[in-house]
Amino acid sequence: MSISKPNKWGSQILNLIYSYQNSTENIAFSSLALSVIVTAVNFGLDAKCYKERNKFWKEDLKDIYTSNPWKNQNIASISISRRNILEDVLKMNSALFFSGFTLEAYCKMFKSIFNLEHKNVNIRNLTGSALVMNTWVSNRMHGSTTNIFNESNLGDRIMVYINTLYVRAAWKLNFNPGLTKPEIFYDDRGMLSNVSMMNQESIFDIYDSPSDFFSILFKNFTNPDIYSAIVLPRDDHTLEDVIEYLNFDRIYSYFDKAVMKYIKLKLPKFSMVSQNDFMVIRKKSGKECLTHLIYEDVKKIVKDPEIVCNISQVVNLEINEIGTDAGSATEVTVEKSLNQPQEFYVNRSFLFLIYSHSTRFVLFSAAVTNPSAS
Questions:
Q1: What share of the chain is helix, strand, coil (3-state, %, to 5)?
Q2: Is residue 374 in some structural domain?
Q3: Which SMART domains match (predicted)?
Q4: Rounded to the nearest 5°, which phi and psi values hold at 91?
Q5: Stretch 129-157: mean pLDDT, rounded?
Q6: Confidence band (pLDDT; 50, 70, 90) for 259?
Q7: Domain span including residue 285
Q8: How far apart are CA 81 and CA 83, in angstroms?
């Protein structure tokens, strides 16, 4: 799998996470953000690893080490471009916490290409190390997380890569808070919960083919290239069906086939703090998966076969009426259509995606099964 194809990889990992999570738990994940760390790991490989990893990534990594400056190289340029869009849209931060020795050139490359901080921790003080890591995460999550790391999940030979994502919807057209009402929401098990349901009538791009067992509503962000894609299963299908079937590479095609329609949209407000531990994903996946190769690569970088690498992604997601721009237009300012609106009621488990049309990347995905969970 190439680093230039994170969409397919993201679909597979989301499917894997959902398959072993409780179906009433929300999931949030960015494969593109994880690809920043994956690429950083591969940049640190020794020359003896070129041939093996070039086959896997379908990219030539050797020029990263033999040419100067790094930023002129193709892979470096791709990585910087991805990092910039993730920092802009998802407020991404990344860091490496490590108690051992890494090459100075590798640390410089971390910062130059990936804006990835290098933090030393004291292996003789696991409590203090956990406090340093938790404080770093909490500061970037605006205080919404506290005790992700502790002595039980740290060891004396540990390297921890962390992504943090602080995700808010930058709606081009805000919802009217006065129209938000309590309504019923159904999860995939048929359990009912009360949610705060936002309401909006407007023109949206919608993909609704009878040949698929889901429909997708695209709602604009203030950035004209960025959209939310709300993927809603049909009445006779579940969110699990959608996750098993949907390939993020097809979102571009669905967007191009979408038709502008006057829609009455109901979307629940929701928020979540989600942590994905890719050590767990590695154990669930087996040795042929991408995450296994990441861990094997880390051992080569630090030349320590006993190193324990943990890769975590922490997400703070909140979707509400105003989003990030209180100055955007609201629903009441939009001219009403003379036609009866088509209903798009998100009153059951759904996928919430953030999509960049120019890059064709799904920047972020969330499986929402319980909007009322905090």
A1: 35, 30, 30
A2: no
A3: SERPIN
A4: 50, 45
A5: 79
A6: very high
A7: 6-54+67-169+272-318
A8: 5
Helix (H) or strand (E) holding 82, with range, is: helix 74-89
Bridge-based pairing of strands 214-220 and 192-207 is: antiparallel
13 in Cβ contact with 30 (< 8 Å): no
pLDDT digits 0-9 by tens, 44-77: 554 334 444 444 344 444 444 444 444 446 777 8
Separation CA 247–CA 243 (nearest Å): 8
CA–CA distance, 286 with 279 (Å, rounded to integer): 11
Q: Which of 197, 200, 152 is nearest to 174 (CA)?
A: 200
Flag whether 373 is in a domain. no
Residue 188 shares a structural domain with residue 127:
no
Q: Is 332 exposed, middle or buried (0-12, 13-18, 19+ CB in 10 A)?
A: exposed
Contact between 145 and 138 (Cβ < 8 Å):
yes
Tokens (6 digits) for 360 = 């064709």
Mean pLDDT score of the chain: 80
- pTM of full prediction above 0.90: no
Q: How far is residue 220's CA from residue 230's CA, in Å, rounded to a whole number?
A: 11
- Locus of tokens 């997601």: 317
Residues 193-213 have a mean pLDDT of 95
Quick check: helix, strand or coil at residue 111? helix
Burial of residue 374, with CB atoms counted within 10 A of its CB: 0-12 exposed, 13-18 middle, 19 or more buried: exposed
